[in-house]
Specification:
By secondary structure, the chain is mostly helical. The chain has one domain (12-79). It has helices at residues 12-20, 26-41, 48-60, 67-73, 76-79. It is elongated. The model has no long low-confidence stretch (mean pLDDT 75).
Length: 81
């Protein structure tokens, strides 16, 4: 499953929400994504999930990954080269 920054729900959602009295379908998705982000952000820095989040943030800010980490992500046969 991939999370997108934008989820297209269509024009029917406000009508469904008003008829059923339920919140829009995107509300719980946004809540759970924010909750998960908070948990991962508070993990210890040596936790893989925290490191992945930090890499994503760095890349989105235009910072290139640490060359040492980049070498570790390659297959062993390419690391020796």
């Amino acid at each position: 499953m991939f999370f997108c920054d934008t989820v297209y729900i269509g024009d029917w959602n406000p009508d469904v929400s008003s008829l059923t009295g339920l919140s829009p379908v995107l509300d719980p998705i946004v809540h759970h994504r924010s909750s998960l982000f908070g948990h991962v952000a508070r993990l210890l820095e040596d936790t893989p999930a925290h490191q992945a989040l930090q890499c994503h943030i760095d890349l989105s800010l235009g910072c290139l990954p640490d060359p040492e980490l980049e070498a570790m992500s390659r297959p062993p046969s390419e690391q020796m080269a």
